[in-house]
Every structure is written in C-alpha cells, then in structure tokens.
Write a structure and sequence with these properties.
This protein is an alpha/beta fold. It is about 40% helix and about 15% strand. It contains eleven helices and nine strands. The structure holds ligand 9MR.
C-alpha cells in the first residue's frame, strides 16, 4: 500500500478529504483510514438516538471509540448531527415545553465532550421539502410539527451560543444539486440568517450516481450556494453503481458501468478542485464498498460498489481518476 499516494496528501492544497466511519470500519481499516483521510465523521454514533436514547441517559461508548481514534491520530472530525427527523428518540418530542431546553442540554453535553476534536457540526439535517411547489419545509419532521419553521433559527442560535467559537455551523441536506430543492435550501438559510449570520456553511450530502446530477447542475449548485456567502462541505459523497429505478435482475456490475462510475468520480473531483476557494472538505460516506450504507438500499439485499476502495482496501479505478491531476 505504501506506493499508493495518500488522498489527503494529494489534496492538501485543496480541501480536507474525509470519510464516514464507525467502530467496525476503524477496527478493520484503521491503517487505510489514517493514510488517506484527514477528516472523520461518525456514520451513526453521534446521532441523537445513539448518544441520548433516553432522557438524561448518555451512551458515548461508540462515539468515544471513533473520537479517541481521531484524537490519537490527530484527525479532526465533523459532528453529525443534532436536529433531524431521523434517529431522534420520541421522548424529546413528547413535551413541547421542555424540548428546546433538552436540545440545549444535549448540545452542551455532546458538543462539549467532543469540542476538542470537532471543527464543524451538522446542526440541522434534512429540513427542506423534497417536493416542488409547496411548503419549502419538510412538514413531516416532528420538529416542524412542534414549532413550525421557527425551530431552525432557534437551533442555530443555540448552537452558536453553546459550541466553541469558530465551530462551523452547517445546514446539511441531500438532493442539494436539484434546482428546486437547492433553491428551497437557499431560501431556508436566508430566513435563518435574516437577522445575522448563524448558518455559515452548507453541507451538500452528494449521494449521487454516474451522470446524476449532471456536472452542470453540480457547478450551478456550488455557485449559487457560494453566492450566498456560504462555505461548502461535501458531506456524504458516494456514487451508486445503480440506476435509480433499475429493473430487478439488471446486470449492473459491468465494465462499462464501472468506467462511467470512475469517470464521474474524476469529473466531480475536477469540479471540486475548480471551486476549492469555496470548499473546505469533501467527505466520502464510508471507507470501502462493503461498508457503504448503499448495500441493501433501496432494494433489500442488493449490493453496491459506490466508493473508492474495495473490501480488500485496494484502490479502484475511481480512486486513480480522483488523484489524476
Ligand atoms: O449511513 C447511515 C446508515 O448506516 C443508517 O442506517 C441511516 C439511518 O437513517 O443513516 C445513514 O446515514 C445517513 C445520514 O445520517 C444522513 N443522510 C443520509 C445518510 C444515508 O442514508
């Protein structure tokens, strides 16, 4: 492995190169992670339900395993995530009167524990509506159900008050390059920031597939977010080998598809480099193909090969395209 160039090293004049990790991937691929990545995100271990499943009961073992690995190796982390409709325990929504107070306590306890190592928090995750032509907000979020849109500004105010100065405060979402959703995200951030800047960074999750979104759509999204004065983090990048509505039984693991996959990876990293003045980090959502959440999504049991390394830790063609500049 020693002759293979380090991704993080190769990109040191551009932006951080990150990976979503968990205790299992750290145990299995620790050396690979240390070599190639200079930013880490807990895939699930810092989510609300992981660290505070019951009111006042904090469970930090898994998050600590990742954070201690990061500390030992001097790798900074992104925190993921505080306010989300997913992986959040019901108890916090059961009492409207105490929900904000509990959220603040949560941010103090979790944010405080990792304050030495976390440089950015996904304060709010996935609050925008997916559908065009209606409310800009995701109405089915229990946060929206309790407080309407006001929870967004409240959450960022809280984060700004509680987290160490200088922590990047991120609004993070998917389908971020789709023009309709992109514009809803921008409108949402404008409203949060209308009395002063709270959100300073937009997280473009970037769960993509070859050709989708188009390269033009990605450039346009980056330009529009940057024009708002926002820093950009690519937070959850992966490129599925599958078509979105692929017919069952489709043969997908072909040399042609692998070439499209590799080419797309090369093309999107060329875009990221072009916009390096706006982009602070590019995080892949997983380490090796087999550790990706896409195995079994959205079709149960169906594998995918969405990342840059095989399960043997070998770089794939996509890896070589990413470092080919
Ligand atoms: O990768 C995560 C997977 O292990 C979890 O089962 C899933 C539960 O919702 O969350 C995945 O990560 C998601 C991230 O937290 C937010 N954006 C979408 C990611 C992929 O679903």
């Amino acid at each position: 492995m020693s002759e293979i160039v380090s991704l993080a090293e190769k990109y040191k004049d551009y932006f951080k190169i990150g990976a979503a990790v968990n205790p299992r991937s750290i145990a299995k691929y620790g050396d690979l992670i240390k070599k190639h990545f200079n930013s880490l995100t807990c895939e699930n271990e810092m989510k609300f339900i992981s660290v505070q499943p019951e009111r006042g009961v904090f469970t930090f073992d898994a998050a600590d395993t990742v954070a201690n690995f990061a500390r030992e190796n001097g790798i900074p982390m992104r925190g993921h995530t505080f306010v989300w409709h997913g992986q959040t325990p019901r108890w916090i929504f059961e009492d409207k009167d105490s929900a904000y107070e509990e959220l603040a306590k949560h941010m103090e306890t979790v944010g405080g524990r990792y304050a030495d190592i976390v440089y950015a928090w996904d304060v709010v995750n996935e609050a925008a509506n997916d559908a065009d032509g209606g409310n800009i907000y995701r109405e089915r979020s229990p946060w929206y159900g309790l407080f309407g849109e006001s929870y967004l500004k409240e959450a960022f105010k809280m984060a700004k008050r509680i987290l160490p100065a200088g922590t990047k405060l991120v609004y993070n979402d998917y389908n971020e390059s789709n023009p309709g959703k992109r514009d809803r995200i921008i409108e949402m951030i404008r409203r949060i920031n209308d009395e002063g800047i709270l959100v300073d960074t937009v997280g473009m999750q970037s769960h993509w597939r070859p050709g989708s979104p188009s390269l033009d759509m990605i450039c346009e999204a980056i330009e529009k977010y940057a024009a708002e004065g926002l820093r950009i983090h690519i937070t959850e990048l992966d490129v599925s080998m599958h078509e979105w509505n692929e017919a069952p039984g489709t043969v997908w693991d072909t040399p042609e598809r692998a070439e499209e996959h590799a080419k797309y990876y090369g093309d999107i990293f060329a875009i990221f480099r072009k916009y390096k003045d706006h982009i602070d980090s590019v995080t892949l959502w997983g380490v090796t193909d087999g550790t990706s959440w896409l195995n079994g999504f959205p079709v149960r049991g169906r594998p995918d090969k969405a990342l840059l390394f095989t399960d043997d830790g070998m770089p794939k063609e996509a890896f070589y395209r990413v470092i080919d500049f």
